[in-house]
Amino acid sequence: MFGWRPGANTAAGLTHFWNQTSVSPRLLPLIPKSALIALWLGASASSVWGAENQPLALLTNAQQVLDLGIDGAMLAPHPVQLRAVVTSVVIRRPWFYVQDATAGILVICTNESRQPVAGQLIEVAGMTIPGLQAPHVYAPTYTIVGSAPFPVPHRTNPSRLAIGEDFGQWVALEGNVVDYFVHPEQDSLLLQEGDQHFVVNISLKAPSAIPANWLGARVEVQGVCWTQTRADGVPTAFRIHTPGTNHIRVLRDGPTNLFALPLRTLNSLASQPSLHDQRVRIAGTVTCLLPGDSLFLRDQTGAIQARLLKPISEEPYILSVNGETLFKDSSKEASWKRFARPQPNLEPLTPGDHIEVVGTISSAGFGLILSDAEYRRLGPGVAPRPAEVSNAALRSGLREGDLVRWRGRLIDRDSHETLGKVEDLLVLNDGEVTVRAFLVTERRDRLSPPPLNSRLEVTGICSREMDELKTVPNIRLLLRSADDLRILSQPPPWEAWNIGRILAIGAALGAGSLAWIAFLRHRVARQTSELAFSNLRLRAEVEERKRAEAELSGTLATEKELNQLKSQFVALVSHEFRTPLGVILASADLLSDYFDTLTPAERAEQIADIKQSTCHMADLMEDVLVLGRVESGKMGYHPQAIDLTDFCQRLIDEMLSATSRRCPLPLIAGDIIAPARGNETILRHILHNLLANGVKYSAPGEPVCLKVEREGDEAVFTVSDRGIGISTEDQKFIFEAFYRGKNVSDRPGSGLGLVVVKRCIELHGGTIELHSAEEAGTTVVVRLPLFRPPGQTDLLPRPPCVPASQPT
Amino acid sequence: MNKILIIEDQPQMRRKLAMILERENFQVSAAPNGLIGLDMARSDPPDLVICDVMMPELDGYGVLARLREEESTQRIPFIFLTAKGENQDIRTGMNLGADDYLTKPVPSDELLEAIEARLERAQQQQGFSPDFRSAVPLERLGLSVREAEILLWVAQGKSNFEIGMILGISAATVKKHLVHTYQKLSVETRNAATLSALRVLSSDSR
User: Fold this and answer.
1) Which CATH architecture has domain A635-793?
2) For the domain B3-125, what is the CATH code?
3) Crossing angle for the helix pair A680-696 and A753-763, nearest 10 degrees?
4) Largest separation between any pair of C-alpha atoms in chain B
5) Strand blocks (E) in A714-795
6) Long-range contacts of A463-469 (CB under 8 A, 24+ apart)
């Protein structure tokens, strides 16, 4: 290179280099061959490499620096002194690009407080450093020696640059302007060529502004290519740094009129993800205008929210009511904001206007949103008519963003004030779907809230948002004004009256009638009795209404509570599963990663722990499943005839073999002649759990006694043991899911057995009593109505269980 | 050799953690509940604490809060390793100032990675005595309130996902703010941003 070419003596030269070089031979196999050859070429050319104190050859042009290769630069810093023209300066970075007659390189210059200006001819003295993409030059300082014309660009194309070619070179390439961004310090264009998208950064901002007709134009850009690479040097993207708009040449003008883009329909946008993040043009009718430069429109095929182009704001646009986000701007993650075109002179709009909108389409939440939108008013129209919407359409999101009308009963409401605005939330239900309607009004236009239970018709913009459990979307309606709320029917007015008022009126009427009596005693007597009667009826009616209302709100509260319990339970279960899973994974990791360092006993311990945790999880799952069946009502109460003595004996035999006869299980059966009627599966769950607990918490050999007898209609089962017992404190919580006594130590258990027992007993319409004292043992008495005549058993009451009584 | 204190009430888990960490050349001590763990951490401050949340006597939140109260134990990296995996739990843990929150079951290599990362960070912060109580000083770097808040957590070694959890925003939003922040600080990497933040936060506490 540089006039010198390796010839026939290459091999000899290499050997010589290896002998001469200070690189330890041990390292040689680790260094890439290419680097060695590059080094060797460089060393041979200068003939000075070798002894450590001898300087390396001075590199005097950019090509020499590049030829060094990253590996070569890695091996040793080479001195550089060269003269080149500054092609591009990167803002706020201590580096810039230079190019001489041979090539272009990146120069890092940390000691100069001021950056050079593109077009200056400078002299750089420094040393090479390995970059990620190519060797760079580190120069503490530089000298400006004059100015020079920009070099003739190397013509290239985006697909070449994308594979990492031409890093740092002054290149020229073409592309179509897809979009542009502004930044306080530099403007950027987004160019597209084939399937490549790339950014062109324009450093010299002032006084240039991007002409409006550049959008959609085909341009030729001259600039320096910067390749973004991963840590291993693989290129991932590239961008072009260009010193100013004068290095961008428009080959073909873009449409001066944005509204010349092809017209799309909204459903075609949803079905074409390839259009996302692109500017599209749609036409439609304005359905709603929101403060903060946002509007909703619909065309024949759908509806959408359009966020209008507006000046840079740091904060994303969010409209929230009662702390709930209604609509949220999902702007790009880029550090630029898309705008800068002179704001079009927008005509004010009213709902119903026909408009054309151009904006960037992207997905937001459940639907699409049009951001940075600009519109053109085509003409006035009639006020938009809301779509009558079915519940199915509401749920499926068919009407996302559209103006719809819906009817339901008001079941809850909330309201609060911020910054002079009143935000009302109305929760409506039609027996099938719950809709949350929001209305934001000025304080003076404040809505007088309709009474609960009123039937309302609401009109508004429909949207959905996932609830916290991510199961069903919440359906929301954004009302435009108080006129969007129509009361169809109110609950009878006397619901709002109180008894006192009614009585007062009654009394007044009574007093009036007394006066009347003085004149027309005979007639009045009859009227008085009528009045008293109607008074009574009125009072009865009020009571009835009140009761109904209380019942309704009670049901609602119960359902809320149940849901909450359910999610708490799910959280508890997942927690209970995570612990044994943690043990299993840790054991498996120990066995797989540290097998050699474990003693045989330690290995056996890991395997035993895995087995034990797995069994524990299996038991837990079994209990959860049983509980789930009981709770969901799948385990119905289907009574059949049972021979209790025989049944208990079978159960005991099973238990004995399952526990390897750890404890004797004597059965004391009273005189039961009549067959009991009950559900064997449920009964089995109850007794099995109680017996298993007795055995588990007793010392081996201690008897666990099961007594069964009849008392009237009831079968009484008594399971007593002399085990560790349950403390008075623990007895309060022992029927709660996953609660286990403090004294269980390491006995396995899910904490669900007694919950299952309790629920099964409730299902059977029975009761449970628990007598226990720590260290003294536990006696559990279960009473089940198994001897009721068949007709009565179908109407079993479900009295609450007695959680615990005093220890005996 | 780095000292690690394990506070875990489940005996099998405690033993296994100790076995794994010992084999990775850590000096391990273990405590069966929060109170004992706290005593051990006070009498012989470890380089890092791994702690369960639900424990008898004193739970993990309590341990963390008390460690953070005292000068000698304030800066010990603290990792929660727990079966409580609800978002709310993670948020609580992070807000209390835990450095990491791992949910059981956790693969050992993930655990080791977390430990290495925390120890490395602790090393990095040596020489700085940053005050992480307020993000206000960071606003002097020209950052918005939100950006400063996010940088404060970045400087404490949190991932975008974790920061999102703490502040109740999406990881993508965190990332967006960070891009702005990098530009304002004229840095390219997370580490560089951390350094700038530490510098500001330390100079302020002096």
Assistant:
1) 2-Layer Sandwich (3.30)
2) 3.40.50.2300
3) 150
4) 51
5) 714-720, 767-773, 777-784
6) A463/A326, A463/A327, A463/A365, A463/A366, A463/A367, A463/A400, A463/A401, A464/A365, A464/A366, A464/A397, A464/A400, A465/A324, A465/A325, A465/A365, A465/A366, A469/A567
Spell out the CATH class of A258-379.
mainly beta
- What's the whole-model pTM score? 0.40
A334 touches chain B (CB under 8 A): yes
- pLDDT on residue A790: 60
Cβ pairs A/B, distance under 8 A: 80
| Dist CA A93 CA A114 (whole Å) | 11
Q: How far is CA A505 from CA A495, A528, A532, A539, A706, in A?
A: 15, 14, 11, 12, 67
Break chain A into its structural domains and give their ranges.
1-57, 77-151, 154-252, 258-379, 387-477, 635-793
> How much helix, strand and coil, in percent to the nearest 5, is found in chain B?
55, 10, 35
The CATH code of domain B136-205 reads 1.10.10.10
Distance CA B6, CA B9 (A): 10
Residue A262 main-chain phi, psi, to 5 deg: -60, 145
> Do residues B122 and B77 touch, judged by C-beta distance below 8 A?
yes
Partners of residue A106 in chain B, C-beta under 8 Å: none
Report how far residue A658's alpha carbon sits from residue A660's, in angstroms, rounded to the nearest whole number.
Answer: 6
Does A671 contact B at CB distance below 8 Å?
Answer: no
Residue from A89, A201, A583, A738 to probe the interface with B (highest B Cβ count within 10 Å): A583
Q: Comparing A154-252 with A635-793, is the CATH topology the same?
A: no
Q: Best of A113, A230, A324, A590 to disrupt the B interface by mutation (most B CBs within 10 Å)?
A: A590
Check: CB of residue B78 under 8 Å from CB of residue B4.
Answer: no
3-class DSSP state for residue A578?
Answer: helix
Task: Kindly state whether B20 is in contact with chain A, defined as any CB-CB distance less than 8 angstroms.
Answer: yes
Instruction: Give the residue from chain A lying closest to B102, CA to CA.
Output: A582
* pLDDT tens readout for residues A352-365: 889 998 887 877 66
Write phi, then psi, for A456 (nearest 5 degrees). -120, 150
B88 contact A CB<8A: no
DSSP assignment of A142-177, as one string? EEEEEE-PPPPPEE--HHHHHTTTTTT-EEEEEEEE
Closest CA to B22 of B102, B121, B112: B112
Residue among A484, A299, A291 at smallest CA distance from A404: A484
Q: A636-653: per-residue pLDDT in tens?
A: 667 788 888 888 888 899
Domain residue limits, chain B: 3-125, 136-205
DSSP states along A482-517: GGGEEEEE---GGGTS-HHHHHHHHHHHHHHHHHHH
ipTM for the complex shown: 0.70
Residues 64..93 of A with a Cβ closer than 8 Å to B: which?
A: 92-93
**Mean residue pLDDT across chain A:** 76
Terminal CA-to-CA distance of chain A, rounded, Å?
Answer: 102
Structure tokens at A394: 């509401």
Topology (CATH) of A387-477 = OB fold (Dihydrolipoamide Acetyltransferase, E2P) (2.40.50)
Question: Is A77-151 assigned to CATH 2.40.50.140?
Answer: yes
| pLDDT (tens digit per residue) in A308-327 | 765 443 333 333 334 443 33
Q: Domain A154-252 sits in which CATH superfamily?
A: Nucleic acid-binding proteins (2.40.50.140)
Report the alpha-carbon distance of residue B18 to residue B26 in Å, rounded: 9
Instruction: State how far the Cα of A591 lies from the Cα of A571, in Å rounded to an integer.
Output: 30
Q: From B52, which residue of chain A is nearest by alpha-carbon distance?
A: A579
Q: Do A92 and B108 touch (CB under 8 A)?
A: no
State residue A238 phi and psi, 5-degree precision: -145, 160
CA distance B83 to chain A (A): 5
Residue A87 half-sphere exposure, CB side, CA atoms within 13 Å?
Answer: 31
Residue appearing with tokens 């000083």: B137
